[in-house]
Specification:
Number of strands: 32
Number of helices: 4
Distance between the termini: 28 Å
Oligomer: single chain
Shape: globular
Largest sheet: 6 strands, antiparallel
Radius of gyration: 23 Å
Length: 477
């Protein structure tokens, strides 16, 4: 995301295309040569719905505060420490201060840049983080708070550090589980003996997806076995390392208490099976599959009670399919598989996803739920010479270690009504489809950014020909 930036703002509220509205145009009075070394970020204040746009280069940090209707409320400029602290990890908001958290490469030193738009002041502070023998899990910005999550080798303790009063306050939570937290984060476990780590002697890197409650989660993210959800005043750690059930840990961020439970997975016994889950709003979707059969269930998240259950069996047409089988290559090439009989296509689909990481993504539009059901696999940079199979072969190539170059995904679209009965109809055009189509209609752009605020979705870009920066709001209208 790259950008020049001059703080001259003009506001526009004129509609162009249905579901799309220009919200803001930022004029460039003097386009600098160094466009390519600028980055743009957005922050949302969950209490006021205010938005901050950040523009960062090697020398300066520009920040502009807007209300939720993009009326400018203030602007600040301060020195950038990007050469030492390259990574914007998140932010917190306290006492009208927007606290930006940057880290160095080792993530052991943090610079906090505090912005106060009311007083027009900025301040900086460098914090050393003492972490001996700990491994990073994730950083989380949620409800205007900032957290760092870590654990230690062979440990069952989660360490949470929260940015407060220009320091990190430390909390430790003992999971006291059948399987230690460290191993849940690193390995898949044997269903027949959950106390034993799988045969692999290689401890994989910690691989966690942090998911939002909005319609933003891709199948590449949701196919991870370990997930973190932010909901209400809590974070939920979800583990699908074991095929028998989804393991859920709820951490209350007000008092840092822990509760845990299991949600059993339906059907399919025997070997060579995979499973995963996704929490969305008040339901939990679970998928379990082998080369012969896939079981897909929808359950009440709080009670675990079954709402609907669907089965896909090889050699039998997929009854919940609202699209062809679609494969997306790492270069975004799309193949729709149409040249096989439905039963044969089902068998190929089950065979391929058995070699992928299973995943479900959800998009809700009013009373309809559109799901992608399938899987994803990462492509390592060392995997050279990978070619897509033709539309009849469904041949899979090689998800998250180091040096990831891209990913493959394969899925079907399935649509359900408010009671999760299968709904016959064409694929729903999502907001993200609209943004993608809009991007394709723009010839030359820089500094693209997509973000959401208060349930609304935005896309911004620098128009090189007109030399201005534009932000559009996209809706489902």
């Amino acid at each position: 995301m790259k950008l020049f930036f001059i703080l001259i703002f003009c506001l526009f509220f004129s509609s162009f295309i249905i579901g799309q509205q220009k919200i803001l145009s930022i004029e460039n009075g003097d386009l600098s040569v160094g466009v390519s070394d600028k980055e743009i970020f957005s922050l949302s204040n969950k209490e006021t719905n205010e938005i901050v746009l950040l523009v960062l280069d090697n020398k300066k940090l520009y920040s502009v505060l807007f209300d939720e209707n993009f009326k400018q409320l203030g602007a600040l400029k301060t020195d950038s420490f990007r050469k030492k602290y390259n990574y914007l990890k998140g932010y917190s908001i306290t006492n009208e201060n927007y606290n930006l958290v940057f880290s160095n490469f080792s993530e052991k030193r943090y610079e906090i840049i505090s912005l106060n738009f009311n007083t027009g002041s900025t301040s900086t502070k460098v914090l050393d983080l003492v972490i001996k023998g700990e491994e990073f899990i994730e950083t989380i910005s949620y409800n205007n708070r900032f957290f760092i999550l870590t654990t230690k080798k062979n440990s069952d303790v989660l360490t949470i550090r929260e940015l407060a009063n220009n320091s990190f306050e430390k909390k430790e939570i003992n999971f006291d589980g059948e399987i230690k937290l460290y191993y849940l984060l690193h390995e898949r476990n044997d269903e027949e003996n959950i106390y034993q780590i799988s045969q692999s002697s290689i401890i994989k890197p910690i691989d966690v997806s942090t998911l939002t409650s909005l319609n933003l989660n891709t199948i590449e993210l949701t196919s991870k076995l370990n997930k973190i959800y932010t909901r209400g005043n809590s974070i939920i750690l979800s583990f699908d390392n074991i095929n028998a059930y989804t393991l859920l840990y709820n951490i209350d961020l007000e008092n840092f208490t822990l509760s845990k439970r299991k949600v059993a997975k339906e059907g399919i016994i025997g070997k060579n099976k995979k499973s995963n889950s996704l929490i969305f709003e008040d339901v939990i979707f679970q998928i379990k599959s082998s080369k012969e059969k896939m079981v897909f269930t929808i359950k009440d998240f709080k009670t675990g009670l079954l709402k609907q259950k669907y089965e896909v069996t090889k050699d039998v047409p997929i009854s919940i399919k609202n699209s062809p089988v679609i494969q997306v290559a790492f270069d975004k090439t799309i193949i729709r598989f149409k040249n096989k009989k439905d039963g044969e296509l089902t068998s190929k689909f089950l065979k391929v996803i058995s070699q992928y990481n299973l995943g479900i993504s959800v998009y809700r539009l009013n009373d309809l739920y559109q799901l992608k059901i399938g899987g994803s696999k990462d492509i390592k940079a060392s995997d050279t010479g990978i070619m897509m199979g033709n539309a009849s072969s469904l041949s899979p190539p090689l998800m998250l270690v180091n040096n990831i170059q891209g990913s493959y995904s394969i899925f079907i679209y399935s649509i359900f009504d408010s009671h999760f009965n299968h709904f016959q109809g064409e694929k729903i055009e999502t907001i993200f489809d609209k943004i993608s189509e809009f991007k394709d209609s723009i010839r030359i752009t820089e500094a693209e950014i997509s973000f959401s605020n208060n349930g609304k979705y935005y896309f911004g870009y620098f128009d090189i020909q007109k030399q201005d920066y534009n932000i559009y709001q996209f809706t489902n209208n």
